[in-house]
Specification:
Blueprint lengths: L3 E5 L3 H10 L5 E6 L5 H6 L3 E4 L5 H6 L2 E4 L9 H11 L5 E7 L10 E2 L10 H14 L5 E6 L1 E3 L6 H6 L4 E3 L7 E3 H13 L6 E4 L7 H12 L6 E3 L7 H7 L4 E2 L2 H5 L9 H14 L3
Parallel strand pairs: 1-2, 1-4, 2-3, 4-5, 5-7, 6-13, 7-11, 8-10, 9-12
Helix pairs in contact: 1-7, 8-11
Length: about 280
Amino acid sequence: MTGTLLSLGHGYSAAALARRLIPQGWRVIGTTRDPSRAASIAASGVEPLVLPASLEPTLARATHILASAAPGPAGDPFLAAHGAAIAAATPQWVGYLSTTAVYGDHAGSWVDEDTPPVPATPRGRARLAAEAAWRATGLPVHVFRLAAIYGPGRGPFDKLRDGTARRVIKPGQVFSRIHVDDIAAVLAASMAAPDPGAVYNVCDDEPAPPQDVIAHAAALLGLPPPPEVPWAEADMGEMARSFYAESKRVRNDRIKALGVRLAYPTYREGLAAVLAAEAGQVF
């Protein structure tokens, strides 16, 4: 199967999917509002579409659409600016990249796709509203609720090397994670077997305390684990603090039912791969 994928808000996860599709003969068109990114997008084999260029001709050609832009004050930015044109498109598949933050805090308990969303943060509430808005278009929308994303260029190794990494300790805190290449595998599997209306949790097999992940990354570098910092005393940005506001373990049975076999089922395999990729700059 090949086609034309329109990547709305072409970013880190979408780029991983493009790396998978383009060698198979897919045409991938990625939008950006930053003209300075056009050359790097083109160098990856993706056709850049610098907005505010007209989106309608590309929408008419797209067999598949992936939307990954973060919601803004007006909701999903593409639906806000191009809602009528998007609703008039006729793609075979639409994917919306959301977040497991829509589930809210479950005090470390397990959640799955049938768990009612009760987002506790502004980020989670905005994503849940964007999910609903995409479904309301009437297109064949598939929702992918992503756990914390990591991969080459988004690992902990630079901070460990320069001594700025910390092990923030909040008793009972666990996160689910997902390597970016496994996100791409899930999206490709869904594109090959569309199920409009489906929701998928995209995460690995082992939710874990964040301090354990940092300690393992330090060990891979042959460094001692960084010092522990109590969560109440940690100097964090708003995004990081929102992650620590919620603790849950996320089930991923539904992506496995798609036939996906995770390349990185835990952070251990994933971090080793990130370190190798960053050493060779293969990303």
